[in-house]
Amino acid sequence: MPDTLSHLHEASGKVRELYGFGDRLLLVASDRMSAFDVVLPTPIPDKGRVLTGLSRFWFERTRDLVPNHMISVDVADFPAEARDMPDVAGRAMLATRLTMLPIECVVRGYLVGSGWKDYRATGSVCGHALPGGLREADKLPEPLFTPSTKATEGHDANIDRAAGVALVGEERFARIEELSIALYRAAADYALERGIIIADTKFEFGEDAQGRIVVGDEVLTPDSSRFWPVDEYAPGGSPPSYDKQYVRNWLETLDWDKTPPGPEIPAEVVAGTRARYVEAYERITGEPFDAYLDATRSRA
Questions:
Q1: How far is CA 186 from CA 196, 198, 241, 270, in A?
Q2: Other Cβ atoms within 10 Å of 191 Cβ, number
Q3: Are 101 and 174 in contact (CB under 8 A)?
Q4: Helices vs strands, H then E, count in the chain
Q5: Is 5 strand, coil or helix?
Q6: Mind listing the pLDDT tens digit for each residue in 228-240?
Q7: How many C-beta neighbours within 10 Å does residue 256 have?
Q8: From its phi and psi, is residue 290 left (phi > 0), alpha (psi between -120 and 50) or beta?
Q9: Among 93, 234, 261, 273, which lies 20 to 30 A Cα-Cα from 253?
Q10: Chain center to CA of 7
Q11: Residues 32 and 247: beta-carbon distance below 8 Å
Q12: Read out DSSP for 116-173?
């Protein structure tokens, strides 16, 4: 973090640094990799740029469906103090400040991850009863809204509708459920045409100064979603992916208790992860990742 901006630094997340400029925020996506809620010591080159570039793409594509917090990813539009930040091009987004809601908005289109574990134990997912006999990675009859808590420490916890309503109120809960499913359906249909299945994803919403519900943070990236290649998808197991599941799978081969400090990621896993993130960007946006890098560098 540059000393000249330390007085503007408001928060550090697992991946992002947040800087405050009055009613605006600058979100800077690092190359840090987190898995099992632990930030690993090895960065993935250009990961932050993939997250910012894909979020920009989806925010632009869905802004008529759901309002979002993005103002610009162009360094020329940033506050003067932020324009000289090192290594900022392509990884930073200027956004409207929101009052964030204390809930993670997860939408599941396929039965995988904690949803699969829940189903095996109870026959339901976050209170949604499902038909019997489903397999891991089966497509669900309809997308499910399965919110979770926002844990400041440890793991987020899946919650049912009643717990979600208790956190944000009946009206807000109904609205974020509607918006989350609408976003997921639109993105999943588009991605499928590009050869990618969006198995599930997570959104975060807040309220702007006018009281509107607005989607913020990041959207539909390899960090917040499961992306599967259509041509390698088969139910009955965990399909290969373009997201950080590749790193999780490697971690599962280790004798590690999933508590800090995390292990160093070997070079071949770093390269494989970067390649998957970049391929996801290129398939979804239809443009070379290098073109995005060149464009953002030319604006810096």
A1: 13, 11, 20, 31
A2: 21
A3: no
A4: 7, 15
A5: helix
A6: 999 999 999 989 8
A7: 13
A8: alpha
A9: 234
A10: 27
A11: no
A12: HHHHHHHSEETTEE--TT--TTPEEEEEEE--B---SSS---B--HHHHHHHH-HHHH
Residue 186's identity, in one-letter code, is A
Q: How far apart are CA 183 and CA 190, in angstroms?
A: 11
| CB-based contacts of 259, cutoff 8 Å, min separation 6 | 38
In the block, tokens 């994803």 appear at 201
Residue with tokens 């690092």: 30
Report the alpha-carbon distance of residue 99 to residue 54 in Å, rounded: 23
Hey, what amino acid is at 165? Answer: V
Q: Where are the alpha helices (DSSP H) in the chain?
A: 47-62, 114-122, 161-168, 170-193, 245-251, 267-285, 289-299
What letter represents residue 24's amino acid?
R
Cα(106)–Cα(203) distance, integer angstroms: 6
**How confident is the model over 36-59, as pLDDT tens digits?**
889 999 999 999 999 999 999 999
Phi, psi of 39 (to 5 degrees): -80, 120
- Cβ(107)–Cβ(140) under 8 Å? no
The whole-chain average pLDDT of the chain stands at 92
Give the count of beta carbons closer than 10 Å to the beta carbon of residue 196: 23
The residue type of 262 is G
Say if residue 300's pLDDT is above 60: no
